[in-house]
Every structure is written in C-alpha cells, then in structure tokens.
C-alpha cells in the first residue's frame, strides 16, 4: 500500500431476471502514516564519537523514509542522517552513552527504537620511551617513559637475571642484555597504549687501577713528611674515594690526602684503598 488515489469499482452482471447493473465507482485518497521504529540499533565508540548503525523499519508508512534521527543519552543531543550508519561527534571520552533512532517520512516522525547497548568513547594514547644508554653491573637507571595521555607508566623487565625493576628504577645486577618494558593500560577515557620495549647492554664492572705518585720503597728523614697521593683510573659515580692507612702509626701516619708524616725511626707500609661497586675493593701499597 502506498499513498495516492484509490478507485473502487462496483459491478453487478445480472442474471435471467435482471439486466447487468451500471458500474459504480468510488475514489478516495490514501494518505501516508508515520513509519515504524528502526530495529537492531548498535553503536561503536570512537575518540569523542560513536558510529550508530540500525536497520530500516519494516513498515515505511506508505511513503519513502526521508531521513533518520539519532538521539543521544545522556544529554539529549540529536544527529540526523539519510541512512545507517550515522556518526555522532562531540561526545565526552570516558562517559557511557546509549542511542535511539527514529525514522521520518512525509507524514512525520515515527516512534523511537529501543536503546542501543551503552558504549564509552575513548581516546588513543602513545608511549614515548627514549633509548637507554649501556651501563655496568651495580649501576641503577632512572626510567623516564611518558604517555601522551599523561597517565603513569608501569615498568617491567623481560630479563630479570640481568636487571630488576622497582617503580621507576632499574638495577643492573649481571652482565648481558637488559630489556625494559613500558606499559600504560588506559582508563575510562583512554585506550591501552602499545607496549614499548627498550634494550641495552650491561657490561661487567671495570676494576680501577691505583698508582702512587712516587714509587716505593721511599726513605723519609725523621721529622719530615712526604705527600705521596694515589691516582685512580676510575673516579666518581659508583666508585668511592681513595683512603689511606698506615701499617704502623707509631712510625708514620698518613692523612686523607696521602701525606705521610714520620713519628719515629722504622719501616712502615702505606696502603691506599678504593671501594668499587658491588663490593670490589682495590688496593695499592
């Protein structure tokens, strides 16, 4: 059935007693009614948006459907379109929304569909994780990846025999390749970021070499002093300062700068010690 004029013909063919009757016609207008409700409404969330799909109503109301209107809940905003799907923008990431759809023809707008299942728009995010320079056993590394969302990064390691992770710090515990993972799992407003890994080499701990400025054995006249400081091939960072000890302070003493002062006649050994990482101590005498 569609809109237009409908003409009904009435006939009587007669019989042995009666002649055929003159045909009578009646014409009247058939008007359209509003269409039925669309069905199978569903939504797919995007970044601040949703794509709403639906099936056209089974009953068009006798006239072509000229458009559809999506109503957003919460908020009540409406978006119109000619067919499925209809894209809805301006949504708030992290907020759950449902959608209903109505169809319109020349007679007006029909009833709304059932609401879609709720969907929550989310923005995407990425992780920036700079290259980590090579290190040595015993050092620690501060991890500094960032997420474009501003959310906190979680760190881990796929090589726990080489390096361990606690919070934002990696500890280098053995020689080898250390791989650090950076993860951001997302929240209501952001999807999970793609995991980023960074690998670097952990080298063995170098051993410092100590040497006195003047090679022994030395002779010092009683009552005099001599500064015989030690130089080291490794300083700063994880390596301690050089310290000095005297084997016999009754014969000679030594201060923190390596200055030896005689006290009495005799023989004495001055030892210089430097503490390296992971408990390695190096000495020179």
Q: Estimate percent helicity.
A: under 10%
Oligomer: single chain
Distance between the termini: 112 Å
The main β sheet shows up as: 4 strands, antiparallel
Q: Strand share of the residues?
A: 35-45%
- By CATH, the topology of the domain at 127-203 is Immunoglobulin-like
**Count, helices:** 0
Domain Fibronectin type-III: 34-123
Pfam family, one: Big_2
Protein name: Fibronectin type III domain-containing protein
Q: How does this structure look, described?
A:
- The chain has no helices and 26 strands.
- The chain is rod-shaped, with a radius of gyration of 44 Å.
- It has strands at 4-10, 24-30, 39-45, 49-55, 67-73, 78-81, 86-89, 98-105, 108-109, 127-128, 135-136, 140-142, 146-147, 154-157, 163-166, 169-172, 176-183, 196-203, 210-212, 225-227, 230-232, 242-246, 252-254, 259-262, 270-275, 281-284.
- The termini are far apart.
- The chain has a 4-stranded antiparallel beta sheet with strand order 6-5-8-9, with no helix packed on it.
- The model is unreliable at 277-285 (pLDDT under 50).
- Among the domains are: 127-203, Immunoglobulin-like (Sandwich), CATH 2.60.40.1080; 210-284, Immunoglobulin-like.
- Strand 5 and strand 6 (78-81) form a beta hairpin.
- The chain is mostly beta strands and 285 residues long.
Q: What secondary-structure arrangement, pairings included, does this model have?
A:
Layout: E1 4-10, E2 24-30, E3 39-45, E4 49-55, E5 67-73, E6 78-81, E7 86-89, E8 98-105, E9 108-109, E10 127-128, E11 135-136, E12 140-142, E13 146-147, E14 154-157, E15 163-166, E16 169-172, E17 176-183, E18 196-203, E19 210-212, E20 225-227, E21 230-232, E22 242-246, E23 252-254, E24 259-262, E25 270-275, E26 281-284
Parallel strand pairs: 11-18
Antiparallel strand pairs: 1-2, 3-4, 4-7, 5-6, 5-8, 8-9, 10-13, 12-16, 14-17, 15-16, 17-18, 19-21, 20-24, 22-25, 23-24, 25-26
């Amino acid at each position: 059935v569609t809109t237009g004029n409908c003409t009904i013909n009435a006939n009587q063919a007669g019989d042995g007693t009666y002649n055929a009757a003159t045909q009578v016609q009646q014409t009247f207008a058939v008007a359209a009614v509003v269409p039925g409700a669309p069905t199978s409404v569903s939504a797919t969330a995007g970044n601040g948006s949703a794509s709403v799909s639906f099936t056209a109503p089974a009953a068009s109301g006798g006239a072509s459907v000229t458009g559809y209107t999506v109503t957003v809940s919460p908020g009540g905003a409406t978006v119109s379109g000619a067919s499925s799907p209809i894209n809805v923008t301006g949504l708030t990431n992290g907020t759950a929304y449902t959608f209903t759809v109505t169809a319109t023809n020349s007679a007006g707008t029909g009833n709304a569909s059932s609401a879609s299942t709720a969907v929550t728009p989310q923005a995407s995010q990425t992780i920036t994780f700079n290259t980590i320079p090579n290190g040595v056993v015993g050092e620690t590394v501060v991890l500094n990846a960032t997420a474009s969302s501003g959310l906190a990064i979680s760190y881990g390691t796929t090589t726990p025999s080489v390096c361990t992770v606690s919070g934002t710090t990696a500890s280098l515990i053995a020689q080898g390749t250390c791989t650090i993972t950076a993860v951001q799992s997302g929240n209501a407003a952001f999807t999970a970021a793609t995991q980023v890994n960074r690998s670097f080499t952990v080298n063995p701990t170098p051993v410092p070499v100590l040497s006195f400025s003047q090679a022994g054995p030395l002779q010092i006249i009683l009552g005099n002093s001599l500064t015989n400081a030690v130089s080291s091939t490794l300083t700063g960072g994880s390596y301690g300062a050089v310290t000095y000890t005297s084997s016999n302070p009754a014969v000679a003493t030594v201060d923190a700068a390596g200055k030896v002062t005689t006290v009495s006649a005799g023989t004495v050994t001055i030892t210089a010690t430097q503490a390296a990482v992971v408990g390695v101590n190096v000495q020179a005498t």
